[in-house]
């Protein structure tokens, strides 16, 4: 990745910084351009993973030892 790169949004800018940092840890690295038409499934999977990670961070679950309300059995 030699040269200037344009990113569409903040999320992609973070990936670019991460990749540039990781590149310094290798003696040799090669990138292959994947045409957008062949990248739709990978893009959808990456977005789904990101969405699920965000949901996991924003949903709080609490386990109760007993019901929070008294329920009367209905016969």
TrEMBL record:
Single GO MF annotation: RNA-DNA hybrid ribonuclease activity
Superkingdom, taxonomy of origin: Eukaryota
InterPro entries to which the protein is assigned, alphabetical: RNaseH_domain (IPR002156), RNaseH_sf (IPR036397)
Pfam families: RVT_3
Domain RNase H type-1: 8-48
Protein name per UniProt: RNase H type-1 domain-containing protein
